[in-house]
Amino acid sequence: MNDKKLGTAAVRWDLSGFYSGLDDPRLEADVAAWERLARKFAAEFRGQIDARLGDALEADAELDMLSSRIGGYLHLMQSLNANDERVRSVSESIGRRMAAVSGDCLTFYSLELAALPENTVAHLAKCDQRVAHHLPLIKQTAVWRPHQLSEPVESALDKRSPFGAGTWSEFYDVMEADLRFLFGGKKMTLGQMTDLVAHHRDAAVRARAQKVLNGGLGGTFAKYSAQTLNVTAGLKSVEDRERGFSHPMSSRNLANLLPDAVVESLHSAVRDTGGPLAQRYYRLKAELLGKKTLLWSDRNAPLPFQSERKIPFAEAVEMVERSFRALSPTLGYMVAEFTKDGHIDAHPAEGKDSGAYNMTLVLPGRRAASFVLLNYRGTERDVMTLAHELGHGMHGLLAAAAQGPLMFRAPMAYAETASVFGEMTVFDRLRTEQAGRHDPRAALALLTGKIDDFMNTVIRQISFSNLERRIHAAAATGQRLSADEIDRAWLEVTREMYGADGEAFTYRDMEHLWTYISHFHRPFYVYSYATGELFTQGIYAKRAALGQKFEALYLDLLRAGGTKDATGLLAPFGLDPTRPDFWSDGIKASVGRWIEEAEALAETLDLPDAVRRAAKRKKRQAPNRNRR
């Protein structure tokens, strides 16, 4: 089905509500207005936070909303024009201006807010509803006090932020848009190559594409990638020591409102429970693909009998809306409204960012707006990606209405919860529809697609995190890892999760694939995906038991935004993330159950005897593997 039949050509963002373009005088006027407000903020509130906290919070919100309009517009423009030097230049110039003013005028605020005595905050909360509403923000800011540096140092760090580790991630987006690989007589982009590797139906094409991709990422690009990762890890190591963090993950864990011990339990559970399940699943998938062992390029391969039907975008929207409405009429109505107002950009286009994301903003006047970027090509996976990003959008909009501009943003570890929940609602609807058609092949194809997604979200992301842990541990002792050393570490953490060579995979032509993971330049960002997936599976499993109570509890979770930690969010559902078995139970209840269902379906199909024998063998051996 071509793009015209998919109906994505007209599904584009309408950004006119921000500015008419980069030359719009209102953009410069807003930047200048923000600078004036920042200077006024410093003049009015420096040294006065204990007496005028309510006014300061209100002024902070105005700064945040104006900054969101400026920064949000520039980010959206860059997503549509990744190769446009002028868009990048304007964005960088404005970012540097605002960071400089922030360092001079706003750094004091978080320091003074963190230093407020608890009794002072309690007194102010009794007298001022604005303070009472923002108590979660104030308490979370205070947690950072032991790790804050002097104001001159913090100010310098704020001014340096446009040139910090995060800029490497942004630069990688630019590099991604420029990379080209010669394949089949054509110059292919990184996105086109990874799509071939992951989804092409011909195993030989997938294997050749991966060899070309891996080769193109090696050599100079791998050396460059290693250098930037070493710089990122080295900078973080120095700052961590100055701030007194006990290990490299602590600052990210604190930002995610997760204790170090809980995050360590997550990693252990994925290794000990998820790893054996992954190996078990990929052995089954190898049999389903008619192979003894898989190449890495077979990891996401569609099954031979998987449907090639392309789903028009309008049908996908209707499917997602119905699924959300079955979960919650409120969410169903929100999806219907979301898709009417030019806040989705679905059409794949030259120069557009690959992949998908959601960005929710609270704009001046406390008007919330949410934007979804997609590259929609009509597959069932694309439908679930739409549900994933709309889940983010519903989360952001509900939290913005309840919490306002300063507290609506959920930490990354919880931000993925609503998006994965959205995927699950569509997945269950598709499964229900297929059950009515009595087509076990289609059911197995859908189920393996979902298991593939889980493996990518949980097993692969924790494998990424384990690689980061090695790089940052080396930096903490003053070591620098070469590209060859990172290659070896990449293969080692991969084998730790997916098994030794020949068990499920033959690890050929993949040693350089770490180089294009731009998230490595946002240290320990990646484990949030696994956290969100397993949070969601735990909550989702409670739907039947909670019955009619579930919708209200779930909407309350979304409305909480950034005001609660993991324990507070999950307690209403009878879940406790600090319990040692929380993570492993979530893995077994979700992907463990799906693998058993996939094995059972494989037995019912008219497949080669070897496949049926393999499915039975894996089913018999499953209990032993889960105890390993």
Oligomer: single chain
Largest sheet: 3 strands, mixed
What is the CA-based Rg, rounded? 25 Å
Count the domains: 2
Instruction: Bin the strand percentage.
Output: under 5%
Can you tell me the CATH superfamily of the largest domain?
A: Oligoendopeptidase f, C-terminal domain
Task: List segments where confidence is low: pLDDT < 50 over at least 5 consecutive residues.
Answer: 622-628
Class of secondary structure makeup: mainly alpha
Work out the number of β strands.
7
Q: State the share of residues found in helices, binned by percent.
A: 55-70%
The end-to-end span amounts to 46 Å
Examine the secondary-structure arrangement and name the CATH architecture of the largest domain.
Orthogonal Bundle
Strand order of the largest sheet: 4-6-5
Shape label: globular
CATH class designation of the largest domain = Mainly Alpha
- Return the average pLDDT rounded to an integer: 91
Instruction: Please count the helical segments.
Output: 27
Description:
Mean pLDDT is 91; it is low at 622-628. This protein has 2 domains: 1-162 and 341-378, Up-down Bundle (Butyryl-CoA Dehydrogenase, subunit A, domain 3); 225-308 and 440-497 and 526-626, Orthogonal Bundle (Neurolysin, domain 3). The protein is 67% helix and 4% strand. The chain has helices spanning 3-6, 25-45, 53-80, 85-105, 107-115, 118-127, 129-133, 135-143, 151-160, 165-178, 190-199, 203-217, 220-243, 250-255, 260-288, 313-327, 329-338, 380-403, 412-437, 440-476, 483-498, 527-540, 543-546, 549-559, 566-570, 582-604, 609-626; strands at residues 180-183, 186-189, 294-295, 344-345, 357-363, 367-373, 505-506. Helix 3 packs antiparallel against helix 4, helix 11 packs antiparallel against helix 12 (203-217) and helix 20 (440-476) packs antiparallel against helix 26 (582-604). It is mainly α and 628 residues long. It is built from 27 helices and 7 strands. A hairpin with a 3-residue loop joins strand 5 (357-363) and strand 6 (367-373).
